[in-house]
Design brief:
Elements lengths: L2 H15 L18 E3 L25 E5 L4 E6 L4 E7 L8 E2 L5 E6 L4 E6 L4 E7 L4 E6 L6 E5 L4 E5 L6 E6 L4 E7 L4 E6 L4 E6 L4 E7 L4 E7 L4 E6 L4 E6 L4 E7 L4 E6 L5 E6 L4 E6 L10 E7 L22 E6 L5 E6 L4 E6 L5 E6 L4 E5 L7
Parallel strand pairs: 1-28
Antiparallel strand pairs: 2-3, 2-29, 3-4, 5-6, 6-7, 7-8, 9-10, 10-11, 11-12, 13-14, 14-15, 15-16, 17-18, 18-19, 19-20, 21-22, 22-23, 23-24, 25-26, 26-27, 27-28
Keywords: Signal
Protein name: YNCE-like beta-propeller domain-containing protein
Organism: Halorussus aquaticus
Length: 381
């Protein structure tokens, strides 16, 4: 896509989404840098010893776990200081991550070595590596029994890892190229994006079987569940839109436009704001959600410029199902702070955005190719 086409897409998004063309981006003019840069990559002192962080037991002190794909590592970031205090070697090319409900373990599927690294967060070390079939992708932790559900794209399955013995106890056939998963335990379902099948799958958590599929759009990538509004949002990477699915009626309500190849989507705790990262763009799109998804309108609240594409170094060889991008990929809204953590893959940075002002408040240097982040939840993810 040339610069003219890219500018036109952003103008269309502003107009269709409801954001005036003259609006500021992220509280500053488009292209203007924001926030400060915090040295984070390396996680060591000058003498080479690993740094540590003290915690007070508050939820805001829980470390943010960041997968760094081309460094073959998981980094731990202090949410208070915005400093990376540990780097933990894992398998080859870790993609996503999920933290257990007690905060003890983090799971990181490694796409190149076809396994899952299990990291003890407090001990800051990998404690087990679990072999899987080809191309594991996303992962999430069941909020009630702590089992880890891993999407194995090469086998068209979800692998269920027992939290007690850390072994695969079940595999679920789900459809073509599953990518990631979220849980709605009260409703009794997990929802999985089938990227190759352009659909959202429904997994019954009692029988551990796929019971339904809802067509969405092209290449649904990551997803988020809003339990109050009874909807799932899918970031559709190849149709450049967000799908809004009513999970009770099991139908696609509507789609809204986004920037190029949106990769990740997450909402604030009240569900009023939705943040979406576009990995082949330079922006995070912010949507305002209505109280009634069926009758109300989803409108663009902001487009936050997080990266200058001219400064991003050339692409690195990739073999992903979706063509690679070097812009913002992971987009995680902290459940404890008014902050969004956005991983900028080609810049080796994690950008912090204020959820209220949409301003960039920090830039943290990370190991190579930061991909995704997660933190312990009080009641599961």
């Amino acid at each position: 896509m040339n610069l003219g086409e890219y500018a036109n897409r952003r103008d269309v998004l502003r107009t269709v989404g409801g954001l005036g063309g003259t609006a500021l981006v992220g509280g500053v003019a488009a292209g203007q840098d924001g926030g400060t840069t915090t040295a984070g990559g390396g996680g060591t002192t000058e003498g080479g010893d690993q740094t540590t962080t003290e915690t007070t037991g508050r939820a805001t002190d829980r470390p943010l776990v960041v997968t760094c794909r081309l460094d073959d590592s998981v980094a731990l970031l202090n949410q208070e200081t915005k400093e990376i205090f540990a780097e933990i070697s894992v398998g080859k090319e870790p993609l996503y991550c999920a933290v257990s409900t007690d905060g003890e373990l983090a799971y990181a599927p490694n796409t190149a070595s076809a396994d899952v690294s299990v990291v003890n967060v407090e001990q800051q070390e990998e404690v087990k590596r679990i072999p899987l079939d080809a191309a594991p992708r996303g992962v999430n932790v069941h909020p009630e029994n702590d089992d880890a559900f891993v999407e194995v794209a090469g086998a068209n399955q979800v692998a269920v890892i027992d939290s007690e013995n850390l072994q695969v106890r079940e595999t679920i056939d789900v459809g073509k190229a599953p990518h990631n998963i979220v849980f709605d335990a009260e409703a009794g379902f997990a929802y999985v994006t089938n990227q190759g099948g352009n659909s959202l799958g429904f997994i019954d958590l009692q029988s551990l079987e796929m019971v339904d599929r809802v067509p969405v759009a092209k290449a649904p990538h990551n997803l988020h569940v809003d339990r109050e509004r009874n909807v799932v949002y899918t970031a559709n990477a190849l149709s450049n839109d967000v799908g809004i699915i009513d999970v009770e009626r099991r139908e696609l309500l509507k789609k809204r436009p986004l920037t190029d190849q949106n990769a990740d989507i997450h909402a604030t705790q009240d569900g009023e704001k939705i943040f979406v990262a576009g990995v082949q763009s330079d922006a995070v799109t912010v949507y305002h959600a209505p109280d009634d998804p069926a009758e109300g309108e989803y409108r663009v609240a902001d487009i936050v410029t997080v990266e200058d594409q001219d400064e991003i170094r050339p692409p690195l060889p990739e073999r992903d199902f979706v063509p690679p991008g070097l812009g913002p990929h992971g987009c995680f809204v902290s459940p404890y702070r008014n902050e969004v953590y956005v991983t900028i893959t080609g810049r080796d940075q994690l950008v912090v955005i204020d959820t209220e002002t949409h301003e960039i408040t920090d830039r943290v240097s990370t190991p190579r190719y930061p991909f995704f982040s997660d933190v312990q939840y009080d009641s599961g993810n």
